[in-house]
Amino acid sequence: MKMFHTTLFLFALLFSCTSHAAEICVGDLKGPETPSGYTCKNPANVTVDDFVFSGLAKAGNTTNIISAAVTPAFSAQFPGLNGLGISLARLDLAPGGVIPFHTHPAANEVLLVSQGSICAGFITSANTVYLKTLKKGDIMIFPQGLLHFQINAGGSIAIASVSFSSPNPGLQITDFAFFGNDLPTEVIAKTTFLDPAIIKKLKGVLGGTN
Amino acid sequence: MKMFHTTLFLFALLFSCTSHAAEICVGDLKGPETPSGYTCKNPANVTVDDFVFSGLAKAGNTTNIISAAVTPAFSAQFPGLNGLGISLARLDLAPGGVIPFHTHPAANEVLLVSQGSICAGFITSANTVYLKTLKKGDIMIFPQGLLHFQINAGGSIAIASVSFSSPNPGLQITDFAFFGNDLPTEVIAKTTFLDPAIIKKLKGVLGGTN
Amino acid sequence: MKMFHTTLFLFALLFSCTSHAAEICVGDLKGPETPSGYTCKNPANVTVDDFVFSGLAKAGNTTNIISAAVTPAFSAQFPGLNGLGISLARLDLAPGGVIPFHTHPAANEVLLVSQGSICAGFITSANTVYLKTLKKGDIMIFPQGLLHFQINAGGSIAIASVSFSSPNPGLQITDFAFFGNDLPTEVIAKTTFLDPAIIKKLKGVLGGTN
Amino acid sequence: MKMFHTTLFLFALLFSCTSHAAEICVGDLKGPETPSGYTCKNPANVTVDDFVFSGLAKAGNTTNIISAAVTPAFSAQFPGLNGLGISLARLDLAPGGVIPFHTHPAANEVLLVSQGSICAGFITSANTVYLKTLKKGDIMIFPQGLLHFQINAGGSIAIASVSFSSPNPGLQITDFAFFGNDLPTEVIAKTTFLDPAIIKKLKGVLGGTN
Amino acid sequence: MKMFHTTLFLFALLFSCTSHAAEICVGDLKGPETPSGYTCKNPANVTVDDFVFSGLAKAGNTTNIISAAVTPAFSAQFPGLNGLGISLARLDLAPGGVIPFHTHPAANEVLLVSQGSICAGFITSANTVYLKTLKKGDIMIFPQGLLHFQINAGGSIAIASVSFSSPNPGLQITDFAFFGNDLPTEVIAKTTFLDPAIIKKLKGVLGGTN
Amino acid sequence: MKMFHTTLFLFALLFSCTSHAAEICVGDLKGPETPSGYTCKNPANVTVDDFVFSGLAKAGNTTNIISAAVTPAFSAQFPGLNGLGISLARLDLAPGGVIPFHTHPAANEVLLVSQGSICAGFITSANTVYLKTLKKGDIMIFPQGLLHFQINAGGSIAIASVSFSSPNPGLQITDFAFFGNDLPTEVIAKTTFLDPAIIKKLKGVLGGTN
C-alpha cells in the first residue's frame, strides 16, 4: 500500500514537472506577441472552453457588395490555436456571392464544401490557372501565398469550411489592398497598369483615399 | 509593340525558371519517400484534379463494432497535400458510435461538428482531462500526440470533419495497438497492469495473436 | 599599437551587438512561456551553472509499484535546454521493474543502456510491433508519439539514459491517463472496451476517481 | 610517429563517415524534387563552382514595357542554394522603370539599393501601406506573401540586390496573374470588380486569352 | 450604397481581427527574448522606418589590424528583421584586408561582391577546402557553421554584402575565441596543439588574459 | 461476428493507408540524399534491427596523438535516425586524453559523463568562456556551432555519451580544418595570424600539404 503511494508521488512529481511544458499554450491576447505566437495563458487558468469555439456555428452576414462572408477562427479569435500550426474559417456565399481574388501570406489552405456548389481557382508562380467547380463534400487545395478565389456556382447558398496550415494565415484581398487604403492613385497606376480614372472609381467603392 | 514582346519574353523566362520550384509538390506515391514527404510528381503532368479530392463526400460504413468510421484524406489518399502541413478526415458516428481512445503521433487536430452532437475529450501529459459535448458548428482542439476520443452524444447520426497540422498525421488506436497484433500477452500484462485473461479476451475481439 | 586598439574596439562593438542574440536562451521559469519555449533569462546573469545539471547523477527511487523510476532533465528541470531541441532523462529499473506503455507527444527518443539488460518495444501507426532485448551499450529508437515500453530483462538493476528531440518531450503513461484521473468510468468503458469493474479496480490502484 | 598515423586514420574514418551528411546538398536539377528541395548532387562530383554564381554580374535587359528586369539566383538557377533557406536576385530599373505589384509566396525579402534611388512599398493584411524612398545603401524589408512594388525614384538607372529567406521564393506578379493567362474574362470580372472591357484590353497587352 | 458600407464594415472587422497576427513582429529590444526572437513591438507604434535601415550605407572603418570591417544588420541592429529568417551585413576590405577564419553558428551565408576582388574559401566537415577568387557581381555560398574567410584579392578596396538565413546568425572569429578572452593558456595549448609561447604572444595582440 | 470482421477490415484499410506515412523513414544509404535526409528504405523491409545499434558498446581506440576517440552514431552509421532530429556519439578519453577544439555546424549537444571526470568548455559569439569540471552523472550543454572541447580531468579513463539535436550534426575539428588539408600555408597565415613556420610544423603533424 505504501508502495502505491510512492508511485503516485513519483508520477505526481514527474507530471507536475512536465506540466510546465508548452505542450498546451493557449494564447494570452493581452500579453506581448512573439515570432512564434502569443505568450501562453497561465496553465492554472486554462479550462476546456479554451479549446472549444462556437463562432463558426452561425452564418456570416452576406448582405453586402460581394454577397459573401468570411468568419475566421484564427488564433486572434480562438486563442487555443496559438502555436498549433492550424486554424479554420467559415465561408458563406449567397447566390451570386464571391470571395474576390486574395492570398493568405502565411498558410496553405484546404477548402471543404459543406453545402451548395463553388467554382474555385488559383494561379501559380508559373502563371498556370487551376479551376474547378466543386460539389458538396469535395475538398480543394490552395497553396500558400498564391492568388485564389471562390464563386458561388449554384442558385442557392453555398457554405464551406476552410482549414489553414497556420494559426494566423493572414488574408490579403487584392482589391482592398489596391483600392481600400491611402496608397496614392499615381503609385497604383504605375504599379498595376490601370488608368487613374478606374482606380479613383474603385477607391470610391472600396473606401480608398488619395 | 516590340517592347511588349520583350516583356513577355522576359517574364516567360522568369516564370519558366521559377516554375522548377517545389511551390507545388504533388506526391508521387510510387517514388521513394523522404523525411519531408513523397518526391514530387512531374509538374508537367499535374492537373487541377491533383488538387481536388472527392473521397470525403460519401459517408463511411458504420456497420461495425464501434458504429463509426474514419475516412482519411491524408497525403497517401490525396497526394496533393504532400509537403503542405495540412490534411483532413471525415468522421461518421452512428447512434452509439465511438472513436475509441487514440493519438495522432505527428499532428495537432481541430474537429468541426457538421451534424449531430459529439462528446469529445483529451488528456494532457499533466493528466488533466478536458471534456466537452459539442453541438453542430462547434470546433474543438486536440493537441499533438495526446490521447483523445469522440462519442456520439445524441440519438441520431453525427458527422464531423477533422483537420490536422500535417499531411500525414498518423493514427494509433490504443486498443488496436494493445490487442490487435502479435505483442505477447505476458508483455502486455506487464506494461498495462491488465490481467492476462482480459488481454486474451480482447485479443480475440480485436484480432490479436500470442 | 593604436591599430590594435582600434581592432579590439571594432570587434568589441561587433560582439556586444551580436551578444543580444538568442544564441543562448536559458529559460526563465518565472517568465511567461511561448510556443517556442520560455522567455530567456537575462544574459548578464547567465553562468556556466546554467549549462550544467547534476540531477541525473543519482539513481531514482524504485521502491514503488513499477519498481522503476524516470528522472527527467527537460527544460523545466534544466532551463539551459530551453529552445535547443534536445533533452535527456534517466531510467532506473530494479529487478522486475517496468516503464509501462507510454508516449512522448512531442519528441523522438533514443535509449542507451548503461547497465543491465532491457527488453523494449514500440508499436507503429500501422500496428507493427518492434521488440528487442538490449544489452549494455545498445541504443534503440522510439519514434515520436508512438506507444512504447521498457522492461528490466535481467535479474539485476538496469539503467539507461534516454535522449529526446525536444527540450520538452512530454510523457503520457497510458494507464495513468486512463485510470489515474477523474475521467468517468462509463466514458472509459465506452472508449477502451474494458469492463467497468476492471476500470474501477485500476482506478483504485492508480488514484483515479469517478 | 605511429600514433600520428593512427590519429589520422581515426579522423579520416570519422570524416569519411560524416561526409555522407547533407551538410552540403547541391541540387541535382535532373533528379526528382521533394518538399524540402532537389535531391543532392553526388558529393564526389561537387566542386567550388557549385558554390559560386556569376549570373548577377550582368545588368538585366530593361528595354521592355516596365523598363525593368529581375534576374534571379534561386535554386533553379544556382543549385548550390538547394536546402539552404536563402537566395538572391538582381533588380535593374531604367529611368521610369517599375517592378509592378507582386508577391513572393514563400519568402521574406530584404532589398539593398546599390545604385540610384528606389521608391518601394508594401501593404499588410491589415491593409496598412508602408512606403519609402530609398537611397543607395538603404535596405528595406518586404514580409512574406505581402503585395509590394519598386519604382525607380530618380532620373538615372537604379540597381538593387534582393535577398530571400528561401532558396525558391516564388514570384507572382499580380497583373500577369490576372491578365497574362487563359483565366476567363468573366471570372476575372467577378473576382476583381474590373470591367470586362478593361480586362480584355489588359489581356491584349499582357498576353492573356479568353 | 448601404451595402457598400456593410462590406467595408465586414472587411474592417476581418482586417482588425487578423491585424493581431504576428505577420509583422518588429523586435522590441527592451522586452524579454524568446527562442524564436524578441517579443514584438506594439503594432500600433510600427512605422515604415521599422522596415528601413541605413546603417550599411557607410563604409566601415578599416584602419585596424585586419584592414577590414564587418557592419552587421542583424535583428539587434535592425529589429524589423526579428523572426524573418534573414539578415545582412556589409564587408569592407582595404588593400591587404582580411576577414580571418570564422563561423556563423546559426546561418547559411551568401556573399555578393559589389566592388573589387575577393579570395574566399570554406572548409567542410569532411575537411575539403573550397577556394575561389571572386570578381564584382559574383556570389558565393558559405554553409552554416563551417569555417570560412575572405581576403582582398586586389590592390584596391573591396566591398561585399552578405546575406544570412537567420536574423541573428552569430559570428565567432576563431582567433578571438582562442586568444581574445580569459581562457587559460594551458587549456588552449592542450586543445589546439599550439605552444604556450605562441598562445601568449597572440593573447597579447588580441587582448586575451591568463 | 460479422461486424467484428467489418471493423477489422475498416481499420486494416485505414492502417494500410496510413502505413505509407513517413512516420518511420529508415535511411537508404544507397539512394539519393535530400535536404531533409536520405530517402526512406522500403517499409516492407524494415525490421527491429533498423532501430537498434550496438556500435557504441565498444570503447574507441585511444592509442593515438590525442589519447581519445569519438565513435559516432549519426544517420550515416545508424540510418534509423534519418529524419528524427537526434543522434548520439561516444567519447573515450584515456588519461591525458583530449577532444581538441571543434564545432558541430548543425546541432546542439548535451554531454553525459558516464565514467571518470571531464573538464569541458565552450566559447560564445560574445567571446564569453564557460568552463566546468564534470563528474560522473553530470550533463553539460554545448550550443550549436560554438567552439568547444573536452579534456580528461582525472587520472583514469573517462567516458561520455553525447546527444545531438540532429541526425547529422557534423564535426569540424579546428586544427584539422586548418592544418590537415591542402589549404595553402600563406592563406592560413593571413587568416589565422600564425607564422608560416608554425603552420608548416602543424601541417607535418596533422597530414596537411601545401
TrEMBL record, chains A, B, C, D, E, F:
Signal sequence extent: 1-21
Keyword Cytoplasm in record: no
Main location: secreted
One Gene Ontology CC term in the entry: apoplast
GO molecular function: manganese ion binding
Binding locations of Mn(2+): 102, 104, 109, 148
Residues involved in oxalate binding: 104, 109
Disulfide bonds: 25-40
Domain Cupin type-1: 54-200
Domain of life the protein comes from: Eukaryota
Membrane in keyword set: no
Record key words, sorted: Apoplast, Disulfide bond, Manganese, Metal-binding, Secreted, Signal
Family annotation (Gene3D superfamilies): Jelly Rolls
Subcellular location: Secreted, Extracellular space, Apoplast
Similarity remark: Belongs to the germin family.
Identification of the protein by name: Germin-like protein
Lineage: Eukaryota, Viridiplantae, Streptophyta, Embryophyta, Tracheophyta
